[in-house]
Amino acid sequence: MKYISKLSILLMIVLFVACSSDKDTGKMSEKEILMNEYLDKGHTISEESFNTIRLSLMQAMGANGISGAVEFCNLAAYPLTDSLSEVFNAEIRRTTKQWRNPKNAPRDYELKILEEFEKIHSEGRLIKDSVFSLSDEEILYVRPIYIQGLCLNCHGSVGSTLSNDNYDVIKKLYPDDNAADYKSGDLRGMWTVKFKKEKKRN
Predict the structure, then answer these.
(1) Which of 57, 83, 113, 129 has an alpha carbon 20 to 30 Å from 146's alpha carbon atom?
(2) How distant is the alpha carbon of residue 179 from its chain centre?
(3) Domain hosting residue 11, numbered range
(4) How many domains are there within the chain?
(5) Is residue 21 part of a domain?
(6) Is 85 inside any structural domain?
(7) What is the pLDDT of residues 56-70, one digit of tens each?
(8) Distance of CA 35 to the CA centre of its chain
(9) Which long-range contacts (CB under 8 A, 24 or more apart) does 17-24 make?
(10) By CB neighbour count within 10 A (0-12 exposed, 13-18 middle, 19+ buried), where does 72 fall?
């Protein structure tokens, strides 16, 4: 399988910055219309996945506090994401350069995208969700994840927004944790939704 070339990475930068929700299908090619369909589908899937995981996380936190939320992430978040992938018939992932669960470590092509995200974010520009051909057989949708206030309970500054007691719980479950010391508004990572290309109908 042929993955992203250097030329494709350059094209992605344009997509990240210029991708627009203004879709005049009368002026779009068949390929552009198809890609926008995947863009809409990816947005819907990532939004529903986020809401499902967030609700489960809030329930765990309500029942057992921050330690309950951490244990939920350790035991259930990844299996839940796999279940959502089956429901939507697409591979759903959350990935970041500063992962807590090693299973969320970026693949090579994801790392390149994350680096472009970081560049755009550091320049104060908005990162929009986007979609492009990953290979002749696959379409990849990507969407940035930003740190929100609630996230700081588990990903904030140790000894401040993330208490030492809660971080001790995290370190017991994730000895190699690399996902703390964030501030609200920081770029955390991204959602990816990978689709198999639909075969053309005759």
Answers:
(1) 83
(2) 14
(3) 6-16+29-143+187-196
(4) 1
(5) no
(6) yes
(7) 999 999 999 999 999
(8) 19
(9) 17/120, 17/125, 17/128, 19/128, 19/129, 19/130
(10) buried
CA–CA separation, 138 vs 131, rounded Å?
11
Give the angle subtended at the CA of 27 by the CAs of 32 and 46, to the nearest 5°.
Answer: 35
Side chain identity, residue 56? S
- CA dist., res. 157 & res. 43, Å (int): 30
Provide the residue count of the chain: 202
Q: Rounded to two decimals, what is the model's pTM? A: 0.85
pLDDT single digits (tens) 122-170: 999 999 999 988 888 999 999 999 999 999 999 999 999 999 999 999 9
Query: Has residue 115 been placed in a domain?
Result: yes
Label residue 134 exposed, middle or buried (CB < 10 Å: 0-12, 13-18, 19+): buried
CA 136 to chain centre: 23
The two tokens of residue 94 are: 């959350």
